């Protein structure tokens, strides 16, 4: 692997940017394929670029046959990330549970008395408004966002930003009545019905959860389910139209 290729892969990792290195096995010709561009000798081959982006969607490295040539697609995608908006009791259970499942967890809450390292040991904590934190962090297809504060001033900007991104999961704590009022508020800032439908609200699987820890289990279970179903859909072979 060329030095400049290694440097580009390291940069993509630090920026949480998905990339695939496509290598033709017959002569080691390469292309670095991103979501929005492709670079290198193989970048002009649309079929190779398309195959690389599909492999990125699935998150799996593989060898494919493109036009009779064997192409190895080495996929580098950001690790799954969970951003929890609201340093509340549920978050104190949800954060360590998600960490056990190898999620990169961040808790965001501007309230300094709540968002502390003592309450969330071993987890990144950001004392900032969620929409501003999101802008600095960047949201991507490997990210799940959950809002837990019950405070529209904190939750709504976070949901608006998440809905305008390609995060794979959005969940919001609250009753059906709360969710209906949330829809009214978000519609006033331009969120469409289709966009709003991406929110899982009331958040979590319907398992009869009552305590903060049980609610955290229901939320994490739903996140895992949504991610698994998404990967299954992306991995399913496409059926050509008759």
Provide a brief overview of the structure.
The chain is an alpha/beta fold and 242 residues long. The chain has helices at 3-14, 46-58, 89-100, 130-137, 152-163, 176-188, 193-196, 212-235, and strands at residues 19-24, 30-34, 38-39, 62-66, 69-76, 81-85, 104-108, 124-126, 143-147, 169-172, 199-200.
CATH superfamily of the largest domain: NAD(P)-binding Rossmann-like Domain
Low-confidence stretches: none
Please identify the top-level CATH class of the largest domain.
Alpha Beta
Number of strands: 11
Strand content: 15-25%
CATH architecture descriptor of the largest domain: 3-Layer(aba) Sandwich
- What is the percent of helical residues? 40-55%
Number of domains: 2
N-end to C-end Cα span: 42 Å
Largest sheet: 6 strands, parallel
Structural class: alpha/beta
**Given the C-alpha coordinates, what overall shape results?**
elongated
- Let me know the average pLDDT: 92
Strand order of the largest sheet: 8-7-6-9-10-11
* CA radius of gyration: 20 Å
Task: Kindly report the CATH topology of the largest domain.
Answer: Rossmann fold
Please write the string of helix (H) and strand (E) elements: HEEEHEEEHEEHEHEHHEH
Describe this structure in words.
The protein is elongated and about 60 Å long. The mean pLDDT is 92. The chain has helices spanning 3-14, 46-58, 89-100, 130-137, 152-163, 176-188, 193-196, 212-235, and strands at 19-24, 30-34, 38-39, 62-66, 69-76, 81-85, 104-108, 124-126, 143-147, 169-172, 199-200. With 242 residues, it is an alpha/beta fold. A hairpin with a 2-residue loop joins strand 4 (62-66) and strand 5 (69-76). The N and C termini lie far apart (42 Å).
């Amino acid at each position: 692997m060329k030095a400049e290729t290694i440097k580009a892969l390291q940069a993509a990792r630090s920026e949480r940017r998905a990339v695939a290195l496509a290598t033709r096995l017959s002569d080691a010709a390469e292309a670095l394929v991103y979501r929005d561009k492709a670079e290198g000798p193989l970048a002009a081959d649309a079929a190779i670029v398309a195959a690389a982006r599909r492999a990125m969607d699935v998150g799996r490295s593989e060898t494919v046959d493109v036009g009779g040539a064997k192409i190895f697609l080495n996929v580098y995608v950001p690790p799954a990330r969970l951003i929890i908006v609201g340093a509340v009791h549920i978050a104190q259970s949800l954060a360590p549970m998600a960490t056990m499942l190898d999620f990169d967890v961040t808790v965001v809450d501007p309230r300094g008395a709540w968002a502390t390292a003592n309450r969330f040991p071993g987890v990144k904590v950001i004392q900032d408004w969620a929409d501003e934190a999101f802008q600095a962090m960047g949201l991507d297809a490997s990210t799940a966002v959950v809002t837990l504060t019950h405070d529209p001033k904190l939750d709504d900007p976070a949901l608006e930003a998440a809905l305008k991104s390609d995060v794979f999961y959005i969940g919001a704590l609250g009753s059906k009545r709360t969710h209906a009022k949330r829809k009214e508020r978000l519609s006033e800032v331009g969120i469409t019905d289709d966009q709003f439908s991406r929110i899982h609200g009331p958040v979590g699987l319907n398992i009869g959860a009552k305590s903060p820890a049980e609610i955290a289990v229901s939320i994490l279970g739903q996140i895992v389910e949504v991610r698994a179903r998404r990967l299954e859909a992306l991995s399913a072979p496409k059926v050509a139209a008759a």
